[in-house]
Amino acid sequence: MAVLAARYWQAMEWAYLVCVWVAGTALVLISAIIPWAVFTRYVLNSAASWPETTAVLLTVVLTFFGAAACYRLGLHMNVTLVVDMLPDRLRRVADFIVELLMVVMALFMVVYGIRLCQATWYNTIAEFPFLSVGVVYSPIPLGGALTLLFIIEHLTIGRPAREADPHLPVE
């Protein structure tokens, strides 16, 4: 069983790195494209048609792959005010309920994301007539599937150990 857990952890580590690289690349590209849009619009006085659409499409990629990566390390946004006041036993129950709700959300993203991709597969975007809308929406089910795999990892073998944040003060 330990060998299986180690292999699953290693696979999730690779999946996490892919998520980080994909989301990071999308962020870098967005950061390069937006200034180009501003330059062409205000300096050249001839706005390019593609930068805004490209930035929006890259934001979809950034959002769903980045969210999966953040979930794996527990860096996603959460509000724990009430849960933190619960006794340990109830806190563990609440955490488990949250994980079950995350499973529901990830499955929703996979199932309905695939349906959305299928429904829009033959539609195109005006600025990119060669690009299928279904391809554009594919990060939704992919991000959902990756999140589901990370949930399984969390529930079975736990979250990966986080390194100390170098930005926090030393106690």
Give an overview in words:
The protein has six helices and two strands, in the order H-H-H-H-E-E-H-H. The chain is elongated and about 60 Å long. The longest helix has 42 residues, at 2-43. Helix 1 packs antiparallel against helix 2 and helix 2 (51-73) packs parallel to helix 6 (139-156). A two-stranded antiparallel sheet has the order 1-2. It is mainly α and 171 residues long. The mean pLDDT is 91.
Global morphology:
elongated
Proportion of beta-strand residues:
under 5%
Helix content: over 70%
How many alpha or pi helices?
A: 6
Report low-confidence residues grouped into runs of 5 or more.
Answer: none
DSSP strand count: 2
Distance between the termini: 38 Å
- The gyration radius over C-alpha positions equals 20 Å
SSE order: HHHHEEHH
Spatial order of the strands forming the largest sheet: 1-2
Structural class: mainly alpha
Average residue-wise pLDDT: 91
The description of the largest β-sheet is: 2 strands, antiparallel
What is the strand and helix layout of this fold?
Elements lengths: L1 H42 L7 H23 L7 H4 L3 H33 L3 E2 L2 E5 H4 L2 H18 L15
Summary tags:
single chain; 171 residues; mainly alpha
How would you summarize what this structure contains?
It contains 6 helices and 2 strands; from the N terminus they run H-H-H-H-E-E-H-H. The protein is mostly helical.
